[in-house]
Amino acid sequence: MTESAAAAPDRARCSRCAGEGALLLVKAGKVVAEACECTRTCPRCEGTGRLYETDVRGYSVLRGCTCGADPRRLAMLAGLKLPTHFIDKTLSNYRPRNPQQMKALGRAGRFVDELVPQTAGTRALCFVGPPGTGKTHLLAAILRQLALEKGVRGRYAEFFLLLSDIKDGYSNGTSARDWLEPLREVEVLAIDEVGKGGKNREWEQGVIDEIISVRYNAGRPTLLATNYPRPGATWKFGAEGEVGETLEQRVGPRVYSRLHEHCDFIEVLGSDFRREQHEERERAPGAVQGRRGIPGVGDALPLKSRTDRSGR
Ligand SMILES: [Zn+2]
Ligand SMILES: [Zn+2]
Predict the structure, then answer these.
(1) How many domains does the chain fold into?
(2) Strand locations in the chain, DSSP E?
(3) Distance from the CA of 67 to the center of ligand 1, in angstroms?
(4) Do 102 and 52 fall into the same domain?
(5) Tens digit of each residue's pLDDT (9 = 90 or more) over 55-69
(6) Which ligand is nearest to the CA of 17?
């Protein structure tokens, strides 16, 4: 073994960051991004995350290192505003439990591969499926991978919380432009739980309509996820106290037809993973057995991941 090979960190084997070089952690209730310790021995940047390179004109330019320590990418990672339960979700730790989930994972990976930063033309995606099938996991993982690998500025937002932020803004004198502009500017926006709303349905439908159109006109893709089925689906969803409705009923025919125009719909079906985990824990505390589902799929998952991940 040569000396330089011996000095190079074996990042793929790093158990803390799984080779990504960056970590999202919760500190004092806030999600922060940090370079993993394994980047300190990076042979290119020696842990600074920055490199001087010579560009085509012969000028020396400062660039971010791809090891994960680049402060700019770390700021992007923290700026995704991922919910705390999903800060460790990646495409490689999503465990598909049926062929549809396998397909959804493949489509998520293709979205990451095909997206060319600052270039219009990427199709938007809408993940459709009942709760607990991994839709939020996929949204979080796509945003994370794009930020780390391509330096794409993304943002995660839960539809219901977004609505209440907008309402708060109005009462503090914020104009429609003030809340819409940051959502338009971000390169990839993920809106989770589309259709989950309060009592003012017409206004809520107007908000989602405006966000989707303004982003479409700016040539920036929006990722969506919803618990509400498309018309004609064999399953139903209604939050507590609600009758089951379709996505078309929740967002209105106009927004629904716009979604159809701009998005690829991806079904993420399956039983509720979180509920199953809870029931398994209840039945046999401390002795969780293998998961139901497709034999072999997910069997290699370490026990820890099967038992302590509440957010999927
Ligand atoms: Zn590491
Ligand atoms: Zn480096």
Answers:
(1) 2
(2) 22-27, 30-35, 50-54, 60-64, 124-128, 154-158, 188-192, 222-226, 263-267
(3) 9
(4) no
(5) 899 999 999 998 999
(6) 1
